[in-house]
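Lab meeting prep.
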Amino acid sequence: MTGVLDIAGLSVSYGGARAVDNVSFAVPGGRVVALLGANGAGKSSLLRAVIGLQAAEVDRLALDGHDLAALSAERRADAGLGYVPEGRRVFAGLTVRENIEVAIDGPAAPRAARVADMLALFPDLKAKSGERAWRLSGGQQQMLAIARALARRPRALLLDEPSLGLAPQIAAVVFARLRAIADDGVAVLLAEQNAARALAIADEAVVLTHGRVALCGDAKQMSADDDALMALLA
């Protein structure tokens, strides 16, 4: 299968040890692919390699058919890759509006319109648009990190553990927004340890074990075979 984001033969090594070993899959537009695995399975290393923050060996890495492998992280973002790292990493001293604005290039009027679009997508942020980011709740900071990544109109959005540290009801709101983002045409690759929550919004899932693909397929079918899935995630 080909997708908006195509990954083939991707490997990441640390000191000669393989953290990600010859991983291949695609993320189609308008779909959520859940990247699952126990802590240390290689999920974060894979995302960092795709966005260009981690050196990797790869046979093919393409976005909309255009090769990304030789591009820097900045150029990959310009090409249409969005990334929300683990821990959110918003600019604590900037306001909500400023956090979104810094991600957008171009004239003032289109930038303001794009900020307004992001605040409309996340109503919790609209009421806090003038607040400094450090004053937001963890859930609001996660929404802000996603809004900042979306502000550049990415074709594919990569997220690393977006539910980490969030109360269940807040995580549910964040995940509902991710489903809506995919339904709007974006290819979403979601690395998540909370398998049940990720599978609930995903179309497909890829399970990593010791850096290798142990299982890949329909998210709903995978969710139904809970015993087999839990054995791989243990």
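Slide two material, second protein:
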Amino acid sequence: MIEHKALYINGRWATPDCADLLDVVSPSSGEVIGRVPVVSTRDVDAAVAAARVAFDSGEWSTLGVQQRAKYVRAVRDGLVSRADEIASLIAAEAGLPIKMWARVDGAMTFFDYFLDLADRLEEPEIRKGPTCNVLVHKEPIGVVAAILPWNAPLAIAAMKIVPALLAGCTVVLKPDPSTPLHAFVLAEIFHEAGIPPGVVSVLPAQREASAALVEHPGVDHVSFTGSSATGRIVGQICGRQLKRCTLELGGKSAAIVLDDADLNAVLPWLVGTAFMNNGEACVLQSRILVPRGRHAEVVAALADAASHLVVGDPHDPTTDIGPLISEAHRERVEGFVERALQAGAKAVIGGARPGALDKGWYYEPTIMVDVNNSMEIAQEEIFGPVIVVIPYDDDEHAVALANDTPYGLSGTVWTSDHARGLAIAAKVRTGNYGINSFGMDPCAPFGGWKQSGLGTELGREGFDEFQVAKSIHLPGNWNGPSFIGPDI
């Protein structure tokens, strides 16, 4: 049992406004494994006020980027030194297999990319215009509310806080209340790294306090990752306030297997991208589109491969698929499958709870066929280890099926003909795509189209989300400096 009774606000461990504690339940056992403070709206006010003072009156926003990078590197080193502890906590509270998804490695790639980018940031630019010269300078946007999901909490935290801090922003980090335990270790690392007071606070807030954070007039930018339904609410609030936001939301992505694909080479990728992260991933390739003539072959190969996935304790290094996050979420996943069966679909494999696991919120890897693309199970994000296999007639039909979704986050095409793959990639309406490849490289801007979100994370474009451009018009006889630094 891990119990925290203080919140990390304004560079110290503060007594919460409310004495109540929130249970943290293990998805592996259904048992309480920890307790953390219930966050109130007053705690939110305190954290935002501290961030506001640190940005408006402190030195953080005016430090040179290399000085800020020293603090961020210290945070990175702290994460590395406590990597095993953090991975164990994430496996325990999120159910993510320690074999891969609970590890800190993914977060480290984001730290390393943005730290390297900070070393290469160009100085402000003087542009020679038709009427005058202009110094174009980028400044930090201000106080950032970084709101995290439970399905990849540490990696997504790094995607947000690292560029925000390097850009000169202050951050109120809001982990999901389902997975707060590792975030308290992260707060300890912030403190040990010497991050100045108010620059980062950590609040595992529930619904009321989370809404107060988004609505808070002291917040300049909301960076949110979560469901499209909640993203709409966040976007509406930010729209009313004309507040900037980045929304990384859901997906229902399609993997297109072309008729010339080498199935032996493709199969490990298809299985990995279809069932990754317990099926709880926005970039999941949950629709497998296959040539009608190869449908039976591909389904049989997928079913055989999925049958060998190990479902079990996420702390076991042999486990491929751990439990879903909660009992309610498993029931939601079951509901999608049950309605699909009633509509005429068939489960080739899975479609049930594993009989050998009588505790925890486990669900078998499930492959559904006899599905048409208009069915609920092919249109809605399930967020579980459930995929559909849909036949197509030709390349144009495959592209049409891939685009027939309210989402536009990810997608892949698998082929022996790279030119053909590129032609398909250009036609699929999604923000991220892979040709015989899948991943999230930190150099690549990551963002969704349609109901998959607004704005961009990762890449230089993701860094720019936390800055605003200022144009300083210069006199014709300007002889001052060509940059703005800490001493200007």
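Talking points for slide two:
The chain has a mean pLDDT of 95.
The chain has two domains: 2-249+452-474, 254-435.
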